[in-house]
Amino acid sequence: MIDPKILxxxxxxxxxxLAKRGYSLDDEKFLSLENQRKDLQTRVEDxxxxxxxxxxxxxxxxxxxxxxxVLALELEEIKSQTTDLExxxxxxxxxxxFFLMDIPNLISxxxxxxxSEDDNKLIEEYLKPQVLKSDSHLDITDQISxxxxxxxxxxxxSVLKGNVAxxxxxxxxxxxxxxxxxxxxxxYVPYIVNYDALEGTGQLPKFEEDLFKLSNxxxxxxxxxxxxxxxxxxQIVDQDLLPIKxxxxxxxFRSEAGSYGKDTNGLIRLHQxxxxxxxxxxxxxxxxxxxxxxxxxxxxxxxKLELPYRVVQLCSGDVGFSASKTFDIEVxxxxxxxxxxxxxxxxxxxxxxRRSKIRFKENGKNHFVHTLNGSALAVGRTLIAVIENxxxxxxxxxxxxKELQNLMDADIIEL
RNA sequence: GGAGAGAUGGCAGAGUGGUCGAAUGCGCUGCCUUGGAAAGGCAGUAUACGGGCAACCGUAUCCGGGGUUCGAAUCCCCGUCUCUCCGCCA
Length: 415
Known about the structure:
This protein has 415 residues and is α+β, with helices and mostly antiparallel strands. The protein has helices spanning 4-9, 11-19, 27-63, 69-101, 137-140, 146-152, 162-181, 195-201, 225-230, 287-304, 351-356, 379-389, 402-408, and strands spanning 121-126, 144-145, 159-160, 185-186, 192-193, 219-220, 235-237, 244-253, 272-282, 309-313, 325-333, 338-347, 358-362, 365-368, 370-378, 391-392, 397-399, 412-414. The strands form five sheets. An eight-stranded mixed sheet has the order 1-10-11-12-15-9-8-4. Strands 7-13-14 form a three-stranded mixed sheet. It is elongated and about 105 Å long.
């Protein structure tokens, strides 16, 4: 969430910033709630202070055997006033907290203004696509089955077989090794998390419909960002440990509510997909640099796999709820004849840190850290890209990128 | 699944109705001591919100929620989590 103090003191500039996203901040409501809260809180605390003092007197009178009748009446009076006000105050605090939790992060100054992905800014392109057009991965190999996925689970699930399954596994291993080489600590985490974790990273309360909820009020993770970042929830991290760099390979589960009819063919958009995530937790002044680092780590995986990609910076209307600045990396998908997102690298500034209370102490004062993460990469989509960009229709084979040949024990997949 | 124990500050661990935001130890920070270091001595060291230029003051917080009481870390109820033993099991 946004710092309520900043919001209060710079309400107009916050409102303008959020408007670029298409979020209309009800500033009058906020200020009025805040003023009410402050007024009420002062009154409640005054009463509590009186109550505490009189209670102390009460004890002393009792000890010395004097009458407490007068005091008792006075206390009763204060108490009845207090409880009412306390209830109002806590209701108000909850209302304010909901209000704040609903507001997206402020976008960075250098985020281009725009309303949709059409306004995203092209940053760079790497490699000219060799295969401009190809069959879909589903047509290239019969070792990917959506029918079996459907049989077992429903729509948007897949089953991989044989060398394609092995290629998928090799990609996971390759990517996590790359992350480790880049200084991230490999971490194994739960795939099921609680409400607080999801609130901390910003998925809840607003985006519950995007998640798979279990019957016991836990949720399947939509990304490893959630468990990795929340490892530090409610903690004051030793500043010598910063920057913290973690990676995990996990499946990700997304309900894809609201994407009916979108990307219905193939592995592009499934309820379950694997991803290697890299996360950094840094001091505020280092976060912009860290975003560059994360992005280049994600890019380097594509470069080593010799896949053509481009980098775009998301415009204000396309940046996610919790992020302040985001670069998307898009890989060339020959069957679609266009670039598709394969990684999203974001700086969340102190937004997640404030929600999940991740702080560090410097010069005796506590400060919120900055959190960042990026996919390096989405494995399913990488699999598609490898298959389609290395497909040789004449010879009926898929060339395996050099970097993966060891893990695959082969340099081609015969079809 | 059965039986029991527990949840207190960065950590360990006291505290069973008021003087407790909390002993003590460890850790950490500063100063003294030293040629320098170690050891030792002294002092400081939870979080959030509100007020104040500040020193500082007020309020809340001892897993969460409710209750008893003038007053709760402490007593009662409900919940969550953790641990131990037995059973089962990847």
